[in-house]
Amino acid sequence: MKETFKQLELFFKSSNFDRGIRVGVALAIPFAVFYALGYFELALPIVLGAFLNAPGDMPGSRKRKVNAILISTGLTMLITTIILFTKPYLPLLLIAMGVIAFFVSLLSVYGFRASLVSFSGLLAMVIAFAIDKTSTSAILIQVALMGLGGLWYLSVSLIFQIIFPNKDQNQLLSDTLHLIGDYLKLRAKLLTSTKDRDQRVQRNFSLQNQINDKHETLRETLLTARKRSGRSRYEEKQLLIFISTIKIFELIEAEQMNYETIDKIFKDRKEFLKPAKKLNKIMGNHLIRLSEVLMQQNPLPDKKNLTSALARANASITDYLDNVKLPQAREGALILKNLYDYQEQLLEEIIAIRRAMDNVKEASKVSLKRQDASQFLTLHEYRFNVMLQNLRLDSTLFRHSLRLSIAMLFAYSLGIFFEIQNTYWILLTIIVIMRPSYGLTKERSKDRITGTLIGAVIAVGIVLLTQNEIVYAVLALVSLVFAFALIQQNYKSAAALITISIVFVYSFINPKALEVIQYRVIDTFIGAIIAVVANYSLLPSWEVFNLKKVLIEALKANKAYLLATQDLYKNPDDKLLAYNLARKEAFLAISQLNAAFQRLTQDPKSKQKEFQLIYEMVTLHQTLISAIASIGNFITQHQTTPASVEFNMLINRISDTLQGALDSLERTSTQENIAKTKAEDAHKKLLNEYKRLAHVRDENIKLGNEELDTETLHSLQEAYLISNHLGWLVSLSDNLERSTKRYKETILQDK
User: Fold this and answer.
1) pTM for the model
2) Confidence band of 217 (pLDDT split at 50, 70, 90)
3) Alpha-carbon distance values, 106 to 185, 403, 408, 637 (Å)
4) Rounded to whole angstroms, how far apart are CA atoms 173 and 529?
5) What Cα–Cα distance (Å) separates residue 595 from each residue in 206, 520, 655, 743?
6) Under a CB-based contact definition with an 8 Å cutoff, are residues 422 and 503 in contact?
7) Do 60 and 221 meet the contact criterion of CB atoms below 8 Å apart?
8) What span, in angstroms and rounded, lies between the C-alpha atoms of 173 and 153?
9) What is the rounded distance in angstroms from the CA atom of residue 136 to the CA atom of residue 115?
10) Per the count of CB atoms within 10 A, which of 26, 245, 386, 636 is most buried?
11) What pLDDT shows up at residue 120?
12) Is residue 564 classed exposed, middle or buried when 0-12, 13-18 and 19+ CB atoms within 10 A define those classes?
């Protein structure tokens, strides 16, 4: 019961519920005011304009939000005008429908925010069929009032942002902390458990993608919030938390070990890994609790269990050495020590988040320069040329736009032929659930149908119990508020609430409520079937054939990240910014690859060609970026020796191998690769350096010098990590090149 109340509290304090309230206020006030003044007919187009332009109100910078809603308002006015004027002329109407559906849905090429504007435009086209205006003056008044409604919603949104200026940022930070906590706990399970490891790795992909999405939105929101007078204390606090979440995410990535090596070394000694696993779990749960505290404004949780768990993890290294004994214990002890170092850094960042949340005045200031911060923002290209580049059959969004246009024209023609009442409900279902991916369309179809049925049953029950119009109006508004609040979290529940809202709105106008419910359910079924069949049969876009572009970007980003790490090793002070930028781009590229893989898993089994090969490639990319992050993190956290000739030779060897994989996809050719024998010799030299240091240490122990100084420890750690990780990277890059060539030969050749 206590947990239920906590979840309810978090929901009512969330920015999602706040967004639902915004929509409710924007719709309710015009209704109430014009109804009281006796001009109820004027309220409907204003409310409709507000409703149509609400989707563009998403978290992000204020400038982009305002621009999105203004563009959305202009687009919905234009589309409504075109449909209303062409409605009496069927041939013109069909042409207008097809052209609008195609080009408006193609706006999604400009990013997620543009896709929401696109949805508003499509929604305006569908709802225009329900508007009964025929004269020129009536149409122009309708459109003008809808435009006023869009501006009214923008005003409400800005007022809410002034009253609650940090709501969206806090929600994004809270969501990010929660996701990272889940990610850390999942990594804890991977450390010791070999059972279901593949399924957990796939879950990793999903979490990484979600975290990267949150980080991108936070970059836009927080890094553009700086004003000429500087950041406020609260903005400084949010930025501190954000930067710590990025560091934690990188540390978790870098913490990924070669599980085959760990399984081999700790095969019968997993108990020595359990303290590290326990610490990861405790830190993950602590981050989740901090995510809740951030929204609840409650006192911070006790941190004693964190420090005691860290102490136990440190003690496990000594226990391992006492149990196994040197020199046999050295490799395992170095693995435990490296793991402990990561966890110690993780804990430092968690403490930094606690200090920022506790408003500690001595907490570190953010020293990121304006020109440096701007480089971390992902800029979207809004040139018309971007759309032109997608006007080709191999573009996923081009196929989706064409498919959507055909499906809508077919549905409308079907409605005319069979004289279906409210055909626009079928069209509405199609635009709401049809996505470029077949799997997502199918999933949303199920949720839409289930939600509609649930909503219909609830609505029927209420209609049978009462015939009160005031009750209908209140329930319509309340259900719509909750629908908007839940639409991103639980689409099935949102669909049920939207159905309830629509039924009561119609019941408020039309007394035949049960008839409305009946048509609503039937039309939803028809629309869902058309959407799924169209996605499967009309220019289907199976993810297995769309991976090429994503793989190319991942290879380029990983190669750039590798070379940035090489430069960082040579000059840590001057190359840190370039390294951080390359790391960001690599993480975003791998996130896109993970998202593509998730879409692949949703395609029909028969269309998941060479699934195991693609899974292997995605895993190799993920492991590659983790190994690079591990080297980069060690360099930034330790005083390292100068980069050796062998280090540079191996980096170049790995870079050339990645380029070879890239060439096979792009059908280009570059210079000859570095000879593999030279790379093998370089790796042997690095291993020999580690063995030399280990031998010196063994000799000192024999002489009775058992005390290990920090400099010698760091030298051993560096030699072990660099030699092993570079050898690992060579193997990973070789496997990735082979897998990429197999992908090209077995999949792209058949395309």
Assistant:
1) 0.87
2) confident
3) 39, 11, 15, 46
4) 39
5) 7, 34, 25, 18
6) no
7) yes
8) 26
9) 31
10) 26
11) 95
12) buried
Q: How far apart (Å, rounded) are the C-alpha atoms in residues 444 and 450? A: 10
User: What pLDDT shows up at residue 645?
Assistant: 81
Residue 614's Cα: distance from chain center in Å?
Answer: 21
Q: Copy the structure tokens of residue 353.
A: 């988040």
Instruction: Give the angle subtended at the CA of 290 by the CAs of 287 and 293, to the nearest 5°.
Output: 160
Asked if the model's pLDDT at residue 388 lies above 90, the reply is no
State the residue for tokens 């760091």.
714
Determine how many CB atoms are found less than 10 A away from the CB of residue 17: 19
Q: Is the peptide bond before 572 cis (omega within 30 degrees of 0)?
A: no
227: alpha, beta or left? (left if phi > 0; alpha if psi -120 to 50): beta
Tokens of 748: 């792209």
Name the band, by pLDDT with cuts 50, 70 and 90, for residue 371.
very low
Q: Residues 6 or more apart from 672 whose CB is under 8 A from it?
A: none
Based on its alpha-carbon atoms, the radius of gyration of the chain, rounded to whole angstroms, reads 29
DSSP tag of 228: T
Which residue do the tokens 């956290």 mark?
637
Report the alpha-carbon distance of residue 617 to residue 747 in Å, rounded. 13
- With contact defined as beta carbons under 8 Å apart, do 82 and 96 qualify? yes
CA-to-CA distance for 377 and 706, rounded, in angstroms?
51
Within 53-166, residue ranges assigned H as helices are 62-86, 90-105, 112-128, 136-163
From residue 32, alpha-carbon distances to 199, 484, 614 in Å are 53, 20, 57
pLDDT at 360: 59
C-alpha 627/C-alpha 732 separation (Å) is 10
Residue 94: what are its φ and ψ, rounded to 5°? -65, -40
Q: Give tens-digit pLDDT for 618-661.
A: 999 998 998 899 888 888 887 777 878 888 888 888 999 999 99
Residue appearing with tokens 């470029």: 436
**Mean residue pLDDT across the chain:** 85
Q: Find, among 23, 109, 8, the residue nearest to 58 by Cα.
A: 23
Given a contact cutoff of 8 angstroms between Cβ atoms, the answer to whether 254 and 632 are in contact is yes
Residue 463 has pLDDT above 60, yes or no: yes
194: its two tokens: 């070999």
Cα 52–Cα 55–Cα 61 angle in degrees, nearest 5: 130
| Structure tokens belonging to residue 665 | 């996809």
| Cα three-residue angle 130-135-139, rounded to 5 degrees | 55
Alpha carbon separation from 64 to 26, 248, 379, 382, 436 (Å, rounded): 20, 29, 12, 12, 25
Asked if residue 117 lies in contact with residue 54, where contact means CB atoms within 8 angstroms, the answer is no
Q: Tokens standing for 670?
A: 């570059």
- Contacts of residues 504-508 at CB distance under 8 Å and 24 or more positions apart, as own/partner, are 504/459, 504/462, 504/472, 504/473, 504/475, 504/476, 504/479, 505/472, 505/476, 507/463, 507/469, 507/472, 508/469, 508/472, 508/473, 508/476
538-569 pLDDT tens trace: 988 888 888 889 999 999 999 999 999 999 98
